[in-house]
Design goal:
16 helices; 354 residues; alpha/beta
C-alpha cells in the first residue's frame, strides 16, 4: 500500500505533536453532498450502496476529493453485523432501518451466531481495500462499528425507537438474555473491526449512539463493559504503526473518566460538554475528538469561523485534539459551509501547536 502522506490524524489520536489540528466529520460521506445523492438515486437504495464495494468506495472518497479533510471514514452502516447474523435488515422509506426478525426472547438469541466476516461481510472488507487503493496515501482511512448496546437497541426494537421500551424492558426484566445478545455482538464486532484493520483501516471507531440513554450503573454494565471488551480484543498494530481506537458515546459527558479507563486512544465528545471539562475529566490520558455543534453549520461562514475558534480555545494548547462535529453532519447542510469550517480550522489551529 502507498506510504501515508498526511498522518496528522493518527499522530493526534496518539497525542503526538502536530503542526495543526486535524479535522474530519462524522457522516462526512453521505447525504449532504450532491454527488452522493446522485449516486444514491442511480443505485436505488441505501443497502445496495453499502453492499457494493465499488459504490461504497466511491462514496467514501467523494468528500476527500471535495474538501481538505485529514481522514476518510468508510461508508457503511452500524447494522451490517446484525444483518449478517440473519436479522433481515431493510430500509423503509421515511422510517429508517428495520429488521424483519427482531430479537425479543432468549430463544431468538440462541438462533444467532457470530458471522464469518469474509463470507458474510466480505463486501465491507473489499470496500476497505478499494478505498485504500483509491486514496493512494492521501489521508488515513477510519473503519468503524456500532457499539454492542447501540446495535442491540435496533435488534430488539426492530428498528429505530422513540422510547426504547423493548430494549429497556429486556434490560430490567431479562438481563441475562440481553447480556447473551451483547456478548455475541461484542465477539462479532471484534472480528469485524480486526478484519477492517487487516484490509487496510488505519484507525477504528466504535459508535455508541444510545449509551446516553442509560443510568450510570446500567451504562457501565450494558454499554461500557462491552466496548472495553472490544478494545481488548482489537489488533492495535498494522503496517508498522499503531492503529488508534476511538470510542464515542453520545451524551456521555459525565462518563468520560470511566471511558478513558477502557484502554482506547481517544474519546469522541459531543457538543454538550466543553472540551476543557472533558480534558480535565480525562487528565490528558486520551485524545479528544470534537465537538462543534452540527447545527453551527447552518450559520453564515463568519459565525462558523467564530465557533471553530471557540472549540479550539476550549481544548487549548498542546497535542491530542481532533476537530470534528459533536455528532453527524445534518443532511441539509450547504457544502460551502463545510468548506468554511475547514478553512477556519486550518487558519486558526496552528497557533495552538506552536
Amino acid at each position: 500500500m502507498s506510504p501515508l502522506k498526511n498522518d496528522l490524524l493518527l499522530r493526534a489520536l496518539l497525542r503526538e505533536p502536530v503542526e495543526r489540528t486535524p479535522v474530519w466529520m462524522m457522516r462526512q460521506a453521505g447525504r449532504y453532498l450532491p454527488e452522493y445523492r446522485a449516486l444514491r438515486a442511480e443505485a436505488g437504495d441505501f443497502l445496495t450502496l453499502c453492499s457494493t464495494p465499488d459504490l461504497a468506495c466511491e462514496i467514501t472518497v467523494q468528500p476527500i476529493r471535495r474538501f481538505p479533510l485529514d481522514a476518510a471514514i468508510l461508508f457503511s452502516d452500524i447494522l451490517t453485523v446484525p444483518h449478517a447474523m440473519g436479522l433481515g435488515l431493510y430500509f423503509a422509506e421515511g422510517e429508517g432501518p428495520r429488521f424483519r426478525h427482531p430479537v425479543r426472547s432468549a430463544a431468538d438469541v440462541v438462533k444467532l451466531g457470530v458471522p464469518d466476516v469474509e463470507d458474510d461481510l466480505g463486501y465491507v472488507t473489499e470496500a476497505v481495500r478499494r478505498v485504500r487503493r483509491e486514496l493512494d496515501g492521501r489521508v488515513p482511512l477510519i473503519g468503524f462499528a456500532g457499539s454492542p448496546w447501540t446495535v442491540a437497541t435496533y435488534c430488539v426494537e426492530g428498528g429505530g425507537s422513540k422510547n426504547h421500551a423493548r430494549i429497556k424492558g429486556m434490560l430490567y426484566g431479562d438481563p441475562g438474555t440481553l447480556h447473551r445478545l451483547l456478548e455475541l455482538l461484542a465477539r462479532a464486532t471484534v472480528d469485524y473491526l480486526n478484519a477492517q484493520v487487516a484490509a487496510g483501516a488505519q484507525a477504528v471507531m466504535v459508535f455508541d449512539t444510545w449509551g446516553g440513554l442509560l443510568s450510570p450503573a446500567a451504562y457501565r454494565e450494558f454499554s461500557l463493559q462491552y466496548m472495553s471488551r472490544i478494545v481488548e480484543g482489537l489488533d492495535r498494530e498494522a503496517e508498522g504503526r499503531r492503529v488508534p481506537v476511538i470510542l464515542f458515546t453520545k451524551g456521555a459527558g459525565a462518563r468520560l473518566t470511566e471511558m478513558a479507563d477502557a484502554g482506547c486512544d481517544a474519546l469522541g465528545v459531543d457538543w454538550t460538554t466543553d472540551l476543557a471539562e472533558a480534558r480535565r475529566l480525562t487528565a490528558d490520558r486520551v485524545a479528544l475528538q470534537g465537538n462543534l455543534d452540527p447545527s453551527v453549520l447552518y450559520a453564515p461562514p463568519a459565525r462558523i469561523a467564530e465557533e471553530v475558534g471557540r472549540v479550539l480555545s476550549s481544548y487549548g494548547r498542546g497535542p491530542g485534539h481532533v476537530f470534528n462535529l459533536g455528532h453527524g453532519i445534518h443532511p441539509d447542510i450547504d457544502p460551502e459551509h463545510v468548506a468554511a469550517m475547514l478553512a477556519a480550522v486550518h487558519a486558526r489551529s496552528p497557533a495552538f501547536h506552536a
